[in-house]
């Protein structure tokens, strides 16, 4: 027993010495690391429990680029003056590489190496957004009706993220695998389940890395491989079942009706018409992985954006009337079924400004984690090594008056109305969709969905927080998640 304890202690000390050598690498002109008192723990405690003040202090003492030692790893935090270098140099900094370290897609999906999600979306979804407009609205309105289901009495809801995940899942299912399949509860549950379960990977801090760097990722991969927690394996059969049903049906109908066949318009149909698809040897596992890989980026972010916006407005109901009046005006463009033309989105200036403000104040203290693919020298001469994780210091960008205008910390829903910058327009002072070559290709889709949803919601309901107070985001370390506080929704008296 004693021998094991002594051996374990020696091992820990050795590991610590090894790690320290990595922290103090003198090969490059590295960003400064603030002093810390407790070995191994480093800055973890301050970074996790007091990230706002801790990083502010670090920047004050060490300048625009500094590194911290948290969760057994050195990471570099880059302030507003240099953050554009990360977004502009896609050959050096990769968002995707940092992301798959946390959400292990390569272990979750057999065919990950064969899929390029951004290309799939750019080629088959975004240029067709306007043609999906009617279906998006119908799906959003009917599922919102189902999940909120408000009669004459006010109703209380908590966990808006959860409800919005179901609503957005239904719209995404409609556009990705078709109207027919999107009507099945089983498929909506799978789309929503995949999204919520993958988000757990982002929420759990990498505490095992305190024992040894990389142990957290190793444990996650082992967990996924063993099947103990594997959202892909859990939902694969449901996805394949519905995709197979549609593909077989479509191939048969095409065969039967020839030129008079009415081609369904959705991502699945586009994929099966791509070069290389062999109807005589269909790889359903690949088809299902191609859809799977898109679910988390499309649903988690849009549902979170919508939940945050609802809570921001419920926290400040004094602004809802002005939005209501704008939406009443826009609604004059709707047809007899209440469906808006796609172009009507351009006339929702106040709502668009609210969305931009809510996304601006998403609440992350740091954001857009990237991995350095090679050694890099910032324009101020500081250097970081290959494989270094680099975060953009979001607070530094969003609390700067020269970038955001007066009172940058306060939520001012109509801040952007006269500025002629839409919610999907990216720039140095607005980072929710990233930037550069890899800026989110789904941003127009996401903002259109949020606008269509909010249009109807504001026309139909009044809403406020149950506490009557401003409800802030949930904070886990430096990252923010939608509040789960309760809101009261009641039918608007027209
Ligand atoms: C409010 C909603 C959304 C937010 C906040 C968001 C945010 C982001 C961010 C920060 C990135 C990384 C950008 C970078 O590397 O600089 C990204 C990438 C991406 N997003 Fe979104 N996104 C949203 C909605 C969507 C939707 C609806 C889709 C799909 C329909 C989507 C698909 C993607 C894809 C495929 C990428 C990877 C792009 C690439 O690697 O080139 N996103 N998103």
UniProtKB/TrEMBL annotation:
Residues annotated to bind heme: 440
CDD domains, A to Z: CYP503A1-like
GO molecular function, a single term: heme binding
InterPro entries: Cyt_P450 (IPR001128), Cyt_P450_CS (IPR017972), Cyt_P450_E_grp-IV (IPR002403), Cyt_P450_sf (IPR036396)
Coiled-coil segments: none
Keywords: Heme, Iron, Metal-binding, Monooxygenase, Oxidoreductase
Cofactor: heme
Record flagged with keyword Oxidoreductase: yes
UniProt record similarity statement: Belongs to the cytochrome P450 family.
Protein name, entry field: Cytochrome P450
Lineage: Eukaryota, Fungi, Fungi incertae sedis, Mucoromycota, Glomeromycotina
């Amino acid at each position: 027993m004693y021998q094991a304890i002594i051996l374990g202690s020696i091992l820990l000390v050795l590991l610590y010495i090894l790690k320290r050598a990595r922290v103090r690498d003198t090969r490059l002109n590295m960003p400064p690391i603030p002093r810390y008192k407790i070995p191994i723990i480093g800055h973890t405690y301050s970074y996790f429990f007091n990230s706002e003040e801790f990083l502010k202090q670090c920047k004050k003492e060490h300048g625009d680029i500094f590194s911290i030692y948290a969760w057994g790893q050195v990471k570099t935090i880059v302030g507003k003056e240099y953050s554009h270098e990360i977004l502009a140099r896609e050959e050096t900094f990769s968002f995707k590489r940092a992301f798959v370290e946390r959400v292990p897609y390569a272990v979750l999906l057999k065919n990950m190496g064969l899929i390029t999600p951004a290309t799939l979306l750019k080629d088959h979804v975004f240029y067709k957004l306007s043609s999906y407009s009617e279906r998006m609205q119908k799906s959003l309105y009917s599922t919102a009706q189902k999940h909120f289901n408000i009669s004459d009495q006010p109703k209380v809801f908590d966990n808006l993220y959860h409800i919005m995940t179901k609503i957005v899942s239904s719209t995404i299912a409609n556009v990705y695998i078709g109207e027919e399949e999107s009507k099945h509860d089983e498929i909506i549950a799978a789309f929503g389940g995949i999204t919520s379960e993958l988000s757990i990977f982002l929420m759990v801090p990498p505490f095992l890395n305190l024992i040894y760097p990389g142990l957290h990722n190793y444990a996650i991969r082992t967990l996924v491989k063993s099947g103990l927690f594997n959202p892909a394996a859990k939902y694969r059969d449901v996805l394949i079942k519905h995709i197979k049903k549609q593909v077989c049906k479509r191939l048969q109908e095409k065969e039967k009706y020839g030129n008079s066949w009415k081609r369904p318009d959705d991502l699945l149909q586009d994929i099966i018409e791509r070069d290389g698809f062999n109807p005589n040897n269909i790889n359903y596992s690949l088809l299902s992985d191609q859809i799977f890989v898109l679910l988390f980026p499309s649903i988690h972010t849009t549902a979170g954006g919508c939940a945050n916006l609802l809570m921001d407005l419920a926290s400040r109901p004094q602004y809802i009337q002005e939005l209501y009046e704008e939406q009443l005006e826009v609604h004059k463009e709707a047809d007899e079924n209440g469906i808006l033309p796609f172009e009507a989105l351009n006339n929702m200036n106040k709502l668009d400004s609210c969305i931009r403000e809510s996304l601006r104040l998403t609440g992350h203290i740091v954001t857009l984690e990237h991995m350095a693919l090679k050694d890099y020298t910032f324009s101020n001469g500081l250097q970081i090594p290959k494989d270094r994780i680099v975060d953009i210091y979001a607070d530094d960008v969003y609390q700067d008056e020269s970038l955001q205008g007066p009172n940058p910390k306060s939520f001012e829903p109509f801040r952007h109305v006269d500025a002629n910058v839409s919610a999907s327009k990216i720039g140095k002072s607005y980072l929710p969709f990233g930037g550069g070559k890899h800026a989110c290709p789904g941003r127009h889709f996401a903002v259109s969905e949020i606008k269509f949803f909010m249009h109807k919601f504001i026309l139909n309901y009044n809403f406020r927080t149950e506490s009557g107070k401003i409800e802030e985001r949930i904070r886990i370390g430096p990252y923010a998640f939608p509040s789960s506080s309760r809101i009261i929704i009641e039918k608007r008296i027209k």
